[in-house]
Amino acid sequence: MSTNDDLPVAVLGAGIAGLVAALELQRNGYPVRVFEAAPVIAGLGGTHHDDDGFTYDMGAHFITNRLAAAIGVSGECRLVHRYGETVHLDGRYVDYPNGLLKQPRFVASALKARVSTPEGDPTTAAGRFRRDYGTALADTVALPLVEAWSGAPADELAASVADKIPTSIAHTMLLNALARATNRAISVGYCWAQPMTASVFHVYPEHGVATLCERIAEQLPGVIQVSSPVQAVIVHDGQVQAVRVHDEEIPVRAVVSTAPINVLPRLVEGSDRLDRYRRFRYRPMVLVNLKLRGRNLLSDVVVWLPTGFPFFRLTEATQSMPWLAPEDKTMVLCDIGAEVGDEHWTMDDDALGEYCVDHLEGIIPGVRERYLGCRVVRTPIAYPVYLAEYEEDRLALKESTGIDGLLSVGRHGEFSHNLMEDVYWTTIDRVHRWIADQKAGELLAIEAEERAAAVGDDEANPVVASGTRDMPRA
Ligand SMILES: Cc1cc2nc3c(=O)[nH]c(=O)nc-3n(C[C@H](O)[C@H](O)[C@H](O)COP(=O)(O)OP(=O)(O)OC[C@H]3O[C@@H](n4cnc5c(N)ncnc54)[C@H](O)[C@@H]3O)c2cc1C
After folding, report:
1. Total-model pTM
2. Is the CB of 47 under 6 A from ligand 1?
3. Which of 360, 319, 357, 341 is nearest to 88 (CA)?
4. Nearest CA owner, ligand 1 atom 5
5. Is the minimum distance from the CB of 311 to ligand 1 under 6 angstroms?
6. Residue 293: is it exposed, middle or buried by C-beta count within 10 angstroms (0-12/13-18/19+)?
7. C-alpha distances in angstroms, 200 versus 80, 81, 194, 411, 450?
8. According to the model, what pLDDT value does residue 265 have?
9. Is the CB–ligand 1 distance for residue 134 below 6 Å?
10. Whose CA is nearest to atom 27 of ligand 1?
11. Candidates 23, 40, 44, 214: which one to mutate for ligand 1, based on the most atoms within 8 Å of Cβ?
């Protein structure tokens, strides 16, 4: 066995990925230490509560009963009865997918796309959406939305950006019909690592999505250090040796990083294997939560706005989780794709609230009279931008970082548009693969030791060396 077997595994980040990785390692007998840069845990899976009785996440979060059960928080969750999405098109609301399917121009162009024979698989998002949905629906709805959330032209984005969008309209319609029949918000498109079925539906923790991380963290007593950014991951001969935290070098057996993949190469000392990821970029987001008088102000829980507005999505989470605001009030979240330092990023919070209200009059009549103030959250790393030119390097990450003992997991570590349940399952899978590799390595080391001992014995004792076959006969 190698000499570093008793050293801890360092986990970089206490979002859901880091916490799940730490717990799984601990359950398998590995000592772990979790270092979190921020003063609080949960990362993007955090929740805020304000003094006026409003609760909001880092962007509205919807989770499934399957994730809640896996983490052991089902008892703290309430059932979500209602979830639906509409698209705001030409001044009207159109249901997804039924309403879109009733539009003759979309049907005609989708049928045309089906019968025309494409040459090979499209490599860009523009090609993929036009092939899957037809030109009319792609150009009017899908591509403007994908460009708004990515901040890049659809013909520069990889076709795989569409992998996380349900393309089987028949399956989506079936699940939506079952949702109506069962009065449950059956989950569509919230997890890809496990099957989408009628028994997977939305629930939500009474006290916000942060409950998920808090409950995992409780099972890691004395393991998590907040306000402790990992400053460096030290590598020798292609193998992780230590991390530096608070200027102290801590020897480690391995590192599980959940940091953005474009940051990790800047932390690694002693290897340039990850340098190709320095150029990867994420789409920042300005999330404006408008506090409003009234309830059910949007036509559905989520409203997509392909064009004509500074925000591409509106979410009224209280339609799904009524307990997130006082009874006669609601919160509408406006998602604005941004760049760090641009006009939306730098606008002060009150001005952003006013700006959103100004643009919402056409969607929520009388919104100004209802407006009570806003809460703004900014994140520089909301969405990985799937540029086509990253694709080969992005896919390579699924296998390994190329550095022994360095795993990169989680939404930003995998550079994958994963929601929480996918982060959960893919992180567990990655950790299990690492554990299996360790065990295989240990077995090989034991076999090698036994072989070496046998050779040593053979050399020391020529009688044994020749084996029982050749034992001198009595
Ligand atoms: C707008 C928006 C809406 C979303 N909606 C949903 C939804 O409805 N449902 C859903 O399931 N998911 C949703 N998600 C996705 C979900 O939030 C993420 O998949 C999940 O929270 C990612 O967890 P993570 O642990 O991978 O990353 P993070 O939560 O980002 O955790 C990474 C942690 O690493 C820390 N860190 C970084 N660098 C260092 C360092 N050098 N040293 C130490 N610590 C470091 C960070 O501070 C952070 O706490 C949404 C995301 C966004 C942005």
Report:
1. 0.92
2. no
3. 360
4. 61
5. no
6. middle
7. 12, 13, 10, 22, 50
8. 98
9. no
10. 15
11. 44
Per this entry, what is the length of the chain? Answer: 474
Kindly give the parts of the chain with pLDDT less than 70: 1-3, 117-118, 166-170, 457-474
Which residue owns the Cα nearest ligand 1 atom 22? 411
Q: One-letter amino acid identity for 183?
A: N
Express each pLDDT in 148-176 by its tens digit.
999 999 999 999 998 877 666 667 777 77
Domains and CATH numbers, the chain: 9-48+210-279+387-434 (3.50.50.60), 85-184 (1.10.3110), 282-384 (3.90.660.20)
pLDDT (0 to 100) of residue 115 = 77
Ligand 1 contact via 44 beta carbon (within 6 Å): yes
| Whether the CB of 59 sits within 6 Å of ligand 1 | yes
CA of 44 to the centre of ligand 1 (A): 4
Task: Compute the chain's Rg from CA coordinates.
Answer: 26
Residue ranges of alpha helices (H) inside 42-168 are 65-71, 98-101, 104-115, 125-133, 135-137, 143-150
Question: Residues 6 or more apart from 261 whose CB is under 8 A from it?
Answer: 274, 277, 280, 397, 408, 412, 413, 414, 415
Q: Which amino acid is residue 132, in one-letter code?
A: D
Rounded to 5 degrees, what are φ and ψ at 11? -110, 130
